# Entry
Amino acid sequence: MPPPASHRRRRRTLRRPPARRQRGAVLIVALLLAALIAVGLGSYLNLNLSSSRLAKRTFNGYAALNLAEAGAEEAVWSFNRTQRGDTDAWSKWTTKGSAAWQTFADFNLGANSTNWVKVYVDNHTPGTNARPKIVAQASVGAPGEAPVTKMLEVTLRRRSLFANGLVAKDTVSFAGAVASVDSWNSDPDGNAATAPVPYSAAVRNDRGSVASAAVINSAVLVNQANIWGNVATGGGQPEVGTNGTIRGVDTPTGVKVDPKKISTDFNADFDVLTAPVDGTILKTVGATLGIAGTKTKWRIPSIALKGSDTLTILGDVTIVLTAGTGTNAIDVAGTAQIIVPAGSKLTIYVEAHVKIAGKGLANGNVQPISCQIYGVSTSPGGQEFEIVGNGSLAAVVYAPNGNVEIKGNGDVMGSIVANKIKLAGNAAFHYDESLTERDSNQPFAISKWRELTRAIDRAPFEAIFQGW
# Structure
């Protein structure tokens, strides 16, 4: 007999609880999944926030580094303004003794950032061979953030017209069978008070640089010459003869042309200098010019020596030759000679041609910087320099629009910068490395740059930057 309807309803009612339990389990799983998603989203948002903060600090770090560089450039600009004769170059700086410092804070980097750069110079009145140092500390930050600071140390040196041995805008060529190039340093200790060191095989170095700004393969015609140093061009490869060499101290034995001593990315400025407009006017010169121990300046149309004539330079003499383009401003022939005794100095500014033959130019000083010849022609190739002789020549020549040819079998010591350079004969060219430090009237350039990242490197300057 079937159970009453009430029993059937009771049984159906008793089956419902499992369904509610299932729904509860699903709800718990959903809550767990939601919690996991929340944790994942939170972690993701936190990661994004951390990445954003890191990116901002990285941005501030680069900004601080840029500010430090800008501060260092301000100091370099003040140095070079002084070099140009500006008397107020350091007027906005605080100075004490040889040191100078200044804070720059007028930079707008947006986002309510606070930024500044402090610049310290250890020697704002450097001597000829001094290498002043600039230290810049920059800070970039925003309200509620820890600022990012960077510190740079920059060492300067004077630029030099004679930073290389043989430098041409166009070509450098060697026509002698055994011509050679090397270098030595006449002032190895950098102290002008000590006796200079003359060239000899014992002090010979491999820094006899030859360079051309031309991009053609014939920019440097080494031919049969022996280059003990480097060759650089604006793009082409140097041409080397069967007996020619380009080598250095580290070149393996048996290698005649060392590829490590060749570069093809040379570039240089060839600024034309202007001759002084002052000086005592002389129509002609006698056997001597100048006064021993005295600095004098003269304006002379030309110098012509022949037979056994001699011209002896006394003291520190500057000659401005006023002969025009296309004429001979210096013509030394026969056995005639221009003599620069030890202790004297000769500087020549010339626009016209220079021809020195006979016994040539005899410089009794060890250092080539004691005899300087500046070609001031503004027409490329419009000036010819011809120097002939079998003795030694110690001089520097800067004639960016002149063509220089040296003929003979003697030693040529110094540096030559010209439009074209040709060494004919068997002359041996010796570059004086001290010339890189000898241009006291040239602007400053950066010789060393480094970021001070270690506490031990920053410590000596931290106290300096306090309180200003």
In short: The helical segments are 5-14, 17-83, 455-462. Residues 287 and 311 are 5 Å apart (CA to CA).
